[in-house]
Design goal:
The chain contains four helices and 23 strands. The protein is mostly beta strands. The protein has one domain (32-134, 150-405). The strands form five sheets. Strands 8, 13, 15, 16, 17, 19, 20, 22 and 23 form a nine-stranded antiparallel beta sheet that branches. A seven-stranded antiparallel beta sheet has the order 12-11-10-9-18-7-21. It starts with a helix and ends in an 11-residue tail after the last strand. It binds 2-acetamido-2-deoxy-beta-D-glucopyranose (7 copies). This is Neprosin PEP catalytic domain-containing protein.
């Protein structure tokens, strides 16, 4: 009897001990992993700038940027300027948007501004591995429900966004594109759940519907990644439909930055307001056919490029689909109750005219003739048109304007 009690006690004690040991070991390991990742992500700064919005911008030697951690890019020689004439037709009015940090300092030539990643940013991520990534699927059950469904637009198979995303866009297919651009109206839509994000952007895509490559840029409100609800300029890439590769900005190795003036992931201001002044960012993504580098152009500045000849396969030659529009990521899209995260200005696309729905104007593509033109064929799409809609306003003979957006759930019985 006594013996049995003793054994039982001992067993209980062991369970407690192993639990403690386990728990401690785990948290210690995780923390050192976090530190290691931070060290990897944040390169030594030549100078650091504290921005009014709380960001720290590190001016990092251009040759020590995160891209060079990529095994395939170790020996990459930076292309400092595109070999095509970068003075591309200036279509819109001058935009008076600034990056908030730019008021507090500048990085010198030879260095690039990188938004510093902090411990709390990493701790917010679902996992260190997924830090900086858009997840394509529900992380808790991904296999059979890999999360995508397909539609056909003019005989081209198009992946409609995965179940965790709701998208409204203008799309063109049917040619080989080596560039795309547009002036994206800038807003600060409401984000409902801390994990949600919402963007206004351009996608340049290539490859098959279920394993496409995509390079993207525009503005985004993404509290989980950036720690606040400011509107920020971003770049994104993936070479496997968001499954394993790619990330926002410079949170992984891939994008090569050349600009010492523009920081990826930095807050931009001012944002547009209802019936008030309208602001927009001119975004262009153009391939240098001599190098296969896809250059990102933001407000007249070459920010850097995605080295498609090394990182990407389909986009190494050209893009076969371009989209312009908005994207809401949430576990609660296509659900009742639906996420209340808004897209664009929060107005449906039918609210045309400046100061209403969010718009993209001066939509252009570039083909191998290297001239910018309005796409010969476009179509609109919205995954959940009763929540977020799209409308291409294109009366004959005038410059078309693409409108997109919506309030998300809870405002209208149509979007629960
Ligand atoms: C490629 O490089 C050559 C020589 O530098 C230049 O003449 C040509 O314009 C470039 N082509 C493109 C598309 O940039
Ligand atoms: C561009 O500028 C003109 C003249 O100042 C103005 O009438 C027009 O509304 C502006 N367009 C936009 C989109 O701000
Ligand atoms: C995703 O699911 C669809 C439909 O079940 C399937 O056709 C497709 O091959 C899957 N894609 C991948 C990458 O597993
Ligand atoms: C499909 O795209 C081609 C251009 O590739 C265009 O000429 C044609 O009109 C489009 N078809 C439809 C049904 O829109
Ligand atoms: C994502 O990548 C993993 C690991 O490479 C692979 O097993 C899985 O099939 C991929 N899923 C999709 C949807 O492509
Ligand atoms: C891109 O194309 C070039 C020239 O055709 C080739 O040498 C290179 O291996 C390709 N890169 C990739 C990643 O496919
Ligand atoms: C994701 O998976 C979790 C757990 O299986 C589930 O509760 C949640 O509803 C799923 N989300 C979506 C969007 O399917």
């Amino acid at each position: 009897m006594a013996k049995m009690n003793f054994t039982l006690l001992w067993a209980l004690a062991l369970i407690c001990l192993s639990r403690n040991a386990d728990g401690k070991a785990k948290s210690r390991e995780t923390l050192s992993d976090v530190d290691r990742k931070l060290k990897l992500l944040n390169k030594p700064a030549v100078k650091s700038i504290l921005s009014d919005d709380g960001d720290i911008i590190d001016c990092v030697d251009i040759h020590k940027q995160p891209a060079f951690d990529h095994p395939a890019l170790r020996t990459h020689v930076i292309q400092m300027k595109p070999s095509f004439d970068a003075r591309i037709e200036n279509l819109g009015n001058r935009s008076h948007i600034v990056q908030t940090w730019q008021r507090s300092g500048t990085c010198s030539e030879g260095t690039i501004p990188i938004r510093r990643i902090r411990k709390q940013d990493l701790l917010r991520a679902a996992s260190l591995e997924n830090f900086g990534r858009k997840l394509s699927h529900n992380t808790s059950n991904n296999r059979e429900q890999n999360g995508s469904h397909f539609i056909h637009i003019n005989n081209t198979e198009v992946v409609v966004s995965p179940i965790v995303r709701s998208t409204a866009y203008l799309v063109t297919v049917g040619y080989n594109y080596i560039g795309a651009s547009g002036d994206i109206n800038v807003w600060n839509p409401k984000v409902d759940l801390p994990e949600d994000f919402t963007s206004g952007q351009i996608w340049v895509r290539g490859g098959p519907g279920d394993n496409f490559e995509s390079i993207e840029s525009g503005w985004v409100v993404n509290p989980k990644l950036y720690g606040d609800t400011r509107t920020r300029f971003f770049a994104y890439w993936t070479k496997d439909a968001y499954n394993q590769t790619g990330c926002f900005d410079l949170t992984c190795s891939g994008f090569i930055q050349t600009s010492s003036h523009v920081a990826l992931g930095a807050a931009i201001e001012p944002c547009s307001s209802r019936s008030g002044p309208q602001y927009y960012i001119p975004i262009g993504i153009f391939m240098d056919t001599n190098t296969s580098n896809w250059w990102l152009r933001y407000s007249g500045t070459e920010v850097g490029y995605w080295p498609a000849g090394t990182l990407l396969f389909y986009l190494n030659h050209s893009s076969t689909m371009v989209q312009w529009g908005g994207d809401v990521y949430s576990q609660n899209v296509r659900k009742n109750p639906h996420t209340k995260t808004a897209m664009g200005s929060g107005e449906f696309a039918s609210a045309t005219g400046l100061g209403n729905a969010c718009f993209i104007q001066h939509v252009r593509i570039m083909d191998f003739s290297r001239t910018l033109k309005y796409p010969e064929w476009v179509s609109t799409w919205a995954d959940e048109p009763y929540c977020y809609s799209s409308l291409n306003w294109a009366p004959y003979g005038v410059e078309p304007v693409f409108y997109f957006g919506g309030p998300g759930g809870g405002y209208d019985y149509m979007c629960p």
